[in-house]
Amino acid sequence: MTIQTMAEKVQELESRPPPGPPTPKEEELLAMSEELERERCTLQQERRQVEEDRNQLAEDEQSMTQQMREMEVQMAKERADMARQKTELHRIEESLGKSLIALYHGRIKYPELKNRAS
């Protein structure tokens, strides 16, 4: 389209008489088209929200997976510490047992020595 033909179309549109009030049918069509546009906007917002929710769920899942891995590592360390402590406690128990046995072992009863000075 050339500039001259565009100018002619603009002039033609400007020379038309202004439209009268819309007919009931036109009003209904306008109302329906506005409602459709609102629905379209709402659906777009819902789609965006669904995508945001999906992305958030994916991030949460990754975070939870990482936390689970860290917990597993921490639990493994704690199990190793508990095993080491149990071994240490067992050694202490054995040592105390041997000490008590040595302390209270059966003694030979010797006859009392009479005082030689008397």
Structure description:
The chain has two helices and no strands. With 118 residues, it is mainly α. The protein has a domain of 74 residues. The chain is rod-shaped, with a radius of gyration of 48 Å. The N and C termini lie far apart (149 Å).
* H/E element sequence: HH
Note the overall shape: rod-shaped
Major beta sheet, specifics? none
Percent of residues in β-strands: under 5%
Low-confidence stretches: none
Specify the structural class. mainly alpha
CA radius of gyration is 48 Å
Average pLDDT taken over every residue = 87
Q: Measure the end-to-end span.
A: 149 Å
How are the SSEs placed, and which strands pair?
Elements: H1 3-15, H2 24-103
Q: What's a concise summary of this model?
A:
With 118 residues, the chain is mainly α.
Keywords summarizing the entry:
rod-shaped, about 120 residues, mainly alpha, 2 helices
